[in-house]
Q: What sequence folds into this?
């Protein structure tokens, strides 16, 4: 099969991070657009990117893109795609849809037309009038934007943020993809301490540990395309073997965190055990006023509670102020905090060195970055003289 055009979808504001991840994985033909990053690859790359991408939501196959201002154009454009190459006669193929700034504005109608077109193409190939759809799942999406129809096939299934280690959650938890993005945006490396004083269900410490040990975030879960005939089991086996061989679990981690809510710590401990980091990550029930991170040149990476979670903006401001106290005392530490609070810098006690707009779900936030010094480079021993 020729090279495919693949799409890694992205939460708003994380497109550049997803693109950097793809480049680090060896994909050079990368194009960034709003909410998605396109790249080229083969079937084996569907497996690799689903296993490895930390900040993307899902991986799609671009099946076709064409202008569609009438239902007939949408039908014919969809019917022209060789669906039997991908979907077997027992495949389940639901259709999702969305439409923006397009003449074809009725999403249910567009979904119905696409479904009908796929059925007609498959009837020609399989010689049947009815498909039982009790096999592997092939989710088709039609996305209309400015009268252009993009038809894609979802290789992922449930969003990539569902790593599999978090069965219980605290109130308003940060998504795994956003937690990973915060760690990647920080200057943290495994040789530096990391502390989260508002750890909640432990997502930021766990994502940091996975990055520190180079663990593919999708290793513990299944994907729609894991069951596709066209993929074959061997491609998935090779991709998982590569991921297993890449783990660096001999790297020492100094990751810890705390939360004032004992129930949150209980939830977090369960997630640590599920993720395999019960020994490596240390969590404590503790209010931020008592937090004293140990070590030098560390990073605080955190998502402080805010008004909607606490029920009081005044209480949220107090917690940010206490975070600022820690930053003032630990002068060789860096602080990275995600917050929607407009008065964050005022409460913290000084202006951030850098800010980056991110969206925690639908909530517009800033990632406030207070940059301490980097650790000194290790001195190289001079070569012995002969």
A:
């Amino acid at each position: 099969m020729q090279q495919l055009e693949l799409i890694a979808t992205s939460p708003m504001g994380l497109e550049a991070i997803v693109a950097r991840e793809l480049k680090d994985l060896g994909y050079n033909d990368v194009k960034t657009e709003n909410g998605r990053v396109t790249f080229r690859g083969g079937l084996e790359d569907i497996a690799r990117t689903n296993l490895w991408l930390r900040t993307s939501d899902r991986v799609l196959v671009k099946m076709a893109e064409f202008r569609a201002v009438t239902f007939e154009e949408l039908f014919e454009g969809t019917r022209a795609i060789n669906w039997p190459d991908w979907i077997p006669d027992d495949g389940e193929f639901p259709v999702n849809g969305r439409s923006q700034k397009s003449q074809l504005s009725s999403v249910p109608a567009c979904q119905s037309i696409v479904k009908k077109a796929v059925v007609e193409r498959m009837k020609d190939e399989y010689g049947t009038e009815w498909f039982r759809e009790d096999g592997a799942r092939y989710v088709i999406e039609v996305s209309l934007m400015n009268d252009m129809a993009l038809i894609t096939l979802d290789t992922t299934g449930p969003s990539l943020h569902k790593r599999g280690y978090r069965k219980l959650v605290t109130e308003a938890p940060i998504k795994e993809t956003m937690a990973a993005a915060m760690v990647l945006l920080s200057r943290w490396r495994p040789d530096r301490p990391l502390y989260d004083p508002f750890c909640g269900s432990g997502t930021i410490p766990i994502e940091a540990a996975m990055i520190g040990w180079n663990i593919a975030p999708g290793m513990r879960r299944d994907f729609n395309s894991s069951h596709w005939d066209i993929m074959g089991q061997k491609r998935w086996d090779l991709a998982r073997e590569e991921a297993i061989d890449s783990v660096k679990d001999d790297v020492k981690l100094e990751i810890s965190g705390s939360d004032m809510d004992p129930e949150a710590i209980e939830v977090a401990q369960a997630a640590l055990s599920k993720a395999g980091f019960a020994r490596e990550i240390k969590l404590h029930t503790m209010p931020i006023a008592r937090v004293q991170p140990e070590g030098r040149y560390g990073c605080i990476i955190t998502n402080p509670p805010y008004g909607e979670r606490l029920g009081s903006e005044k209480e949220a401001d107090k917690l940010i102020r206490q975070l600022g106290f820690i930053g003032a005392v630990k002068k060789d530490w860096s602080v990275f905090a995600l917050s929607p609070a407009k008065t964050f810098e005022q409460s913290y006690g000084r202006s951030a060195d850098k800010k980056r707009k991110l969206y925690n779900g639908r909530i517009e936030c800033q990632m406030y970055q207070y940059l301490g010094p980097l650790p000194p480079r290790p001195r190289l021993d001079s070569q012995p003289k002969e």
Remarks:
- The chain has a mean pLDDT of 94.
